[in-house]
Specification:
The protein is an alpha/beta fold and 308 residues long. The chain has eleven helices and eight strands. 42% of the residues lie in helices and 15% in strands. The chain is globular.
Length: 308
């Protein structure tokens, strides 16, 4: 069962990009939104859509073996002082990695993000064909420098909407609701997201300081994480940061911010505390926070013998 778009809109304070990503993911999987970085088999219609998008981007498609679909594809940092990356999607074959980054707000385009994905993918998957699609509204941008053997394609939502309609236009009620929710959000591109969301939910519009993408949220999370680090410095107990992150890259950035503060601390005890990313898929154990239970990822704090 997939979550109804209106229920999702009211349950989580998502930005437009995260909202559209989740709706499209549920369509591709014909299932509820998964934990991040899970290797999953797309539904038949989802696979048909991915193949259509692949043809649009790269006419000479390649890829051998079974296809896996990943939402929030982790590209781990190569060293502790690097953030790492997490493209919104990846489609994986035995010999190919195709990444897809979705944008709905031109302002969220981050310099170096795309070239960073290509660089990290080449490091972690040195023998695979590496491709990257950038799916955005109409916007000015500078394409990344693409290393030899890799491929990059920038496409617009207007190019992809017909593919979505062709794939799921005649589907059942659940899929129709997801398509309608996605198209309604895309119809609002360029408008104020807070107002759009409030109107859909029948709520009064939130003031800017309480709305989606509240600029104070990262600093508040960092402050609570530092308080947890102080506790770990004292008793040595492992702790998790209860961060309401909307993406894996949010957690990667939080880990890096924490590391910079802790390693630069005047306190030798705080410098012994190191933040790291716990993953349900690779780390073992169980989540320690509600966010970790839902996403499968959380920032944790551990004390080491020597300062970092």
């Amino acid at each position: 069962m997939q979550e109804d778009p209106l229920t999702l809109l009211g349950r989580l304070r998502l930005g437009r990009e995260e909202y559209c990503q989740r709706l499209l993911t549920m369509l591709i999987l014909e299932d509820d939104y998964p934990r991040w970085n899970s290797r999953l088999i797309p539904a038949d219609d989802g696979l048909r859509f991915l193949r259509s998008l692949d043809r649009l981007c790269f006419a000479d498609q390649v890829g051998s073996g079974a296809v896996q679909f990943v939402d929030e594809f982790e590209l781990p940092a190569r060293h502790d002082d690097e953030r790492g990356g997490a493209p919104d999607y990846a489609v994986l074959w035995s010999d190919r990695v195709w990444m897809v980054e979705l944008k709905t707000e031109p302002a969220s385009h981050r310099q170096g993000q795309l070239s960073g994905y290509l660089e990290l993918a080449a490091h972690h998957y040195p023998t695979q064909q590496i491709d990257l699609t950038y799916l955005t509204p109409p916007m000015l941008r500078r394409d990344p420098a693409v290393p030899s053997g890799m491929r990059f394609r920038h496409v617009r939502w207007d190019d992809v909407r017909p593919l979505i309609d062709e794939t799921w236009g005649g589907s059942g009620a659940q899929q129709k609701a997801l398509v309608d929710g996605l198209f309604a959000a895309l119809d609002g591109l360029g408008t104020d997201w807070r107002g759009w969301r409030s109107a859909r939910l029948g709520e009064p519009a939130l003031p800017p300081d309480l709305g989606v993408d509240d600029a104070s949220a990262p600093s508040a999370t960092l402050a609570s994480a530092l308080a947890a680090a102080e506790g770990t410095a004292i008793d040595g107990g492992q702790r998790a940061v209860d961060a309401q992150a909307l993406s894996l890259e949010d957690l990667q950035e939080l880990r890096l911010q924490l590391r910079e503060v802790l390693t630069g601390s005047d306190s030798a005890e705080l410098r012994r505390v190191r933040p790291w990313l716990w993953s349900a898929r690779t780390s073992g154990g169980v989540p320690m926070t509600p966010g970790g239970a839902e996403s499968g990822y959380e920032v944790r704090l551990s004390r080491y013998e020597t300062p970092g």
